[in-house]
Fold:
Amino acid sequence: MVGQTPRPSVLVVDDPDRHDRYQTWLPAYEVHTVESERAAADALTDDVHVVLLDDARRRDGTLVERGHRHGARVALLAGNDRRADATVPDPDDRETVVNTVESLLAHTAYDADLDELFVLCKRRAALLAANIDRSEAVAALSRRIDAVTAELDTTVADFATDDFQAAFRDVDSPRSDRETERGRRRKTYSHRTQ
Structure:
């Protein structure tokens, strides 16, 4: 539809008998369900924002890495892998699943806003260093910087302790330039558009 932001997409890799509950629990999202890691690899595109992966269906961790290459956040359903962005300790609890998805999407919005803020500050600094009258352009950039900073403040105000740890873990994690660029292209979702 014109003028509307597409709903965030969640790819669930779990037992078929649990597929319906994710559709019910996550009505605000475009939920796609698959049964196997192979099917998930086929369904995983740059349009997927979050992957919920049943640990029993994870063979070697390649789906976690592949999800990151596509710019998705990956949460394990009752599993543990340091490469995953989160773990859903009780995947049978609706609130836990919903909160995990919302938290991962907030991280995505935070990263996108932080990237935008960096670019805006760099542009403003270049204009100021040029020593020519570009006061209108500097003023416009300053207004946008203020707006993005306010968005970041709003997002951070809702962060829990785990969210802060994840945000700074992401900053410390070395990723290839190609992976980082893909992630930046994908980070168009904002939780504020819901």
